[in-house]
Amino acid sequence: MKLFQPDPRQRRTLGAVFMITLVISTLMTAFFQTQVLAGEQYAARSEENRLRPIKIPAPRGTIYDRDGEVVATSITGYSVSLLPASEETIRETLGDLMPFLGLSQQDVDALMKKRNARPNDLVEITQRATFPQVAAIEERRAAFPNLMIVERPMRHYPSGPAIGHIAGYVGEITREELAKPEFRDAGYEQGVWIGKAGIEKEYEMELGGRDGARFVEVDAMGRVVDPRSSVGALAPKPGKDLKLTLDLHLQNYIHQIFPDSMKGAVVAMVPSTGEVLAMYSHPTVDPNEFVGSIKPSLWRALQSDPAKPLLDRTITALYPPASTWKLATAAAGVKAGILKAGTRMPIPCNGGMAYAGRYSRCWERGGHGALDLAGAIEKSCNVYFYQVGIRLGLAKLAAEGTRMGFASRSGIDLPGEAKPRFPTGIPWYEERFGHTPTPSEVMSLSIGQGPNSQTVLNMAHFYSAIAGNGTAPEPHLVSRPGAGQGSRQIDLGLDSKGLEALWGGLALVTSPTGTAVLSSIPRWKVYGKTGTAQNPGGPDHGWFVGFSGPPGGHPEIVVATIIEHGLHGSDVGPVATKAINFYLNKKHGLPFDPRPTLIERWQSQRMTWSQFDTYPAPLTPLPRGASAARTAAAPAKAKAKQAD
After folding, report:
1. Which has fewest Cβ within 10 Å: 90, 104, 489, 641?
2. Rounded to the nearest 10 degrees, how much is the dihedral formed by the CA atoms of 496, 501, 507, 509?
């Protein structure tokens, strides 16, 4: 008996049925996977291909001064872009927009180059169009069918050039910046505006916020169908606000009174807290001109300007401190027990002195005679301080200067602070110059010359310690709990008697016989020191550093001022004392006097020399530890407030 065996035709039929069944099953499985299991995923991907996000920039946080005045804010601006089109259409449209947006032929050529590199992308013409410009374009909307206008926040600085260096400016993030971990990890993308300098840069992560987006429909070629209609939107997250210790009115006033043709800087601080009241550098720049993108012609002009307006002279320029540094020598001498208020040096000033084979002159060729410490500070006698430095020795003087902060940055919460140049000891000289310093080197260092270059902020910080109680908190610009309590605080190591010895000389500097008598103001007693710094590259620089407060009270403001090339310290004083007068009058609610200094009153014949010889009651130093206790209590108070 034979078993049933299908013929070849039946075998082929069964094989075909099996293959068809397998293919149909595979297709059905794939369809089920695509339509049911992964349907939402593919639908979302399809939607992404159909929609394009148009960025909605987040408004940056507002920056306020100590009184709530606006330092930097965001106002309504507009970005103007062209939809993808042919090269001829784009060029023609740009030509038509030239009179409305102030475009030059160079701008058009640059935009065309950008368009040709990526022909399917939007061509962003500007990010800072104004309302009048947009309104003029909208009136002629029919002539620009391929134009897209998006409202966006635009940074604005109401005080303009007065706060150019301290506020900084914003601009589009670069590829190099995007590669940095702090931006990459925070999710920053191309096209975002970030802080490029000043407070804007230092506090970018707080001020910046996070951008949102609105979604527009695109066709199969990736072109926007209708730029004015949105399918959906993701709201931006605004940046956080900042409150500064800055006094904007004082900052603006300093901008007004600073000699327009001169270069220099002014720093004002509260000595007991480290709060920075003003930081002004001249010549300055208007940060409003940097918003979005600065014009290449303006950037080239700023970079080639010999006056260097981009240089922040408060923290990035270094100057020999000259005679203003004699107070550091005096402080070191008092701390070491070499000096007291009535101490006289064994060699009287006869115009100079010899030591270790070197003869060094005093600035007064006729000499000052025998002086005590107060008289030496008043007259700024080189010979007196030569002898103090010799008694201390170079190693000791360098060590004390380093301890008082002259070899390190102040710690201000701003980017770009320069490190001072100061010898930390004998090995520093050997490493830097390749030989052991001569014994007479101490003479130069003791009067603020030699390898000693400081920022204006560093000098204000040091004098804050003298004006306070021998200590100075770390300088800071943002007001928050714990500010000023960093590692850069200064402690001179002096008691009240030691401080009074220094104050005695500083009080005489603005007296009728002092070097800064023309800087005197009748309402406020000013303690200060002048200095004339030698400048190998040209005329000398003039210094004045001083402090003041209400009669009989404690110092409330320290001001350090330098003016480059051509002025002596006695000429610089009026700028500083006028700033002091403005701030104290404002703080205590007194009438403003636009011409408060002796030199101005004498020139206007409103006051004679004899009439002016009446001075307010002297100030009193803070008790030892008062400022430290006050600032140390700030974090505890904030913590208690949070607990409540």
Report:
1. 641
2. -150
